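FW: tagging you since you asked about this chain on Friday. Here's the raw sequence from the shared folder, copied in full. Didn't touch anything.
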Amino acid sequence: MEAAKKILQDDNHSLFSKDNMFTKEFPSDFRRIRYFTLMIVQKAPPEIKEINLLEQQISEIIKNAVKHGNKSDPEKTIKV
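HL: got it, structure written out here
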């Protein structure tokens, strides 16, 4: 029988670094999702800026946060 594998997490690993990370907090407003998405895409580094795909992914993340996370409550905000 194969030994159980463990997942190790190193909070100090460079992949978890928040240095120079751009974050933005938005109200839960479906009407402004495209605007919020474009604000984030503009700040993306050139090497990941395949605009159409990145824009679609960010838009979906924001929509899910508004709809499922905040239950479309306009008093709540999301942080991306």
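FW: The mean pLDDT is 86.
HL: agreed, and The first strand starts at residue 25 and ends at 27.
FW: great, closing this out.
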